[in-house]
Structures are given as structure tokens and as C-alpha cells.
Amino acid sequence: MKKVLQIILVLTFTAVVSGFVLSSVNNWAKPLIEENRIKAISQAIFLVQQSGVRYEKLKIDEIDVFEVFDENNNSIGYAVVSEGNGFQGTIKLIFGIDKDLNRIKAIEILEQVETPGLGSLITEDNFKNRFKNLNTQPLIQVGKGKKPSNDNEVQAITGATISSKAVVRIVNDAISKLKKFNGIQK
Prior knowledge:
- By secondary structure, the protein is α+β, with helices and mostly antiparallel strands.
- The protein has 3 helices and 8 strands; from the N terminus they run H-E-E-E-E-E-H-E-E-E-H.
- It has helices at 2-48, 125-128, 161-180, and strands at residues 54-60, 63-69, 75-85, 90-97, 103-111, 134-135, 141-143, 153-155.
- The chain is elongated and about 80 Å long.
- The model has no long low-confidence stretch (mean pLDDT 90).
């Protein structure tokens, strides 16, 4: 009986100390993680809106939207952060779009956990460049095994069709939500 009580006390003490250490590390790291997340999004905004020099965050329900301005303080479009399900987990991306919401300027993948060597190819320039100057009227379509014949089509990555379609679905969903709000209002 004394041995059992001793084991329970040791395990309880270990659990309490481990919980305290984990909590302390989490409290220490949380602001740093948030700071790095904001820094990564800020850098990505200027990758998808390359002529932008500053941006303002807009309040749009469920979607992070940033209006981007050029050096003459003219609005050149928006950078939109959106996420959705991929093949193995959540894909978080940002895309630049013109002021009329009709043309994609560029896209960057912020976070993904797709299959290495297949789905993870969505992070490669070869795939991301397929979105440059892409028409969003009508919504973007995915072509499989053939070159796009329309200016609103993206060719899927061979062996990663689900990941390719997921990226297109995430972009289309965000554009549809923005259009539902009658464009972007400040």
C-alpha cells in the first residue's frame, strides 16, 4: 500500500511540474508566434501585390482582407488570406486580386501539410505561376491532364489533383464571399 501511494505521489508531482513547464513555455512563446505570423503575412502581401508599398487591413466577415496601395497612395487591389481543407490538412494561402475582383495577380501558400513530393508541390513556383493574371469571371476551373484552354483555368499538378483542386476551391470560396458583400467596402 505504501508503494502504491509513493507511485501516485511521484506521478502527481511529475504531472504538476510538467504542466507548469508546458504552460510557462506556451505563455512565453505565444506572443513570439503571433508576431512571426503577422510578419509572414506582411511579407506575403507584398509578394502577391508586388507594386504595393503599404496596406490597410479591412474588416470583412471571416476573411482577412488587406487593401494595398502604390507609392502614389493609389489603391492597386487587395491581398486576401483564406484557408480550407486540402488532402491531408488545412491549406492557408494569400492571393492578390485587382480592385474589381476580376484578376488574380499572384498567390502564395502560407501553411500546408500536403503529401511531401506530391501535394506539397502547390508551394512551388511552377504551380503558383499558373494563377498569375487568371480571370475570376466565371470562377476558376481546374483542368486535369491538359493545357488550359480558357483564361479562368488552372492545370492541376499530376499526382496532386486533390491538392490542386483544394487551392482553387479556397480561392473561389474567398472570391465568392467577397462578391457576396457587393465588393469590398471600407
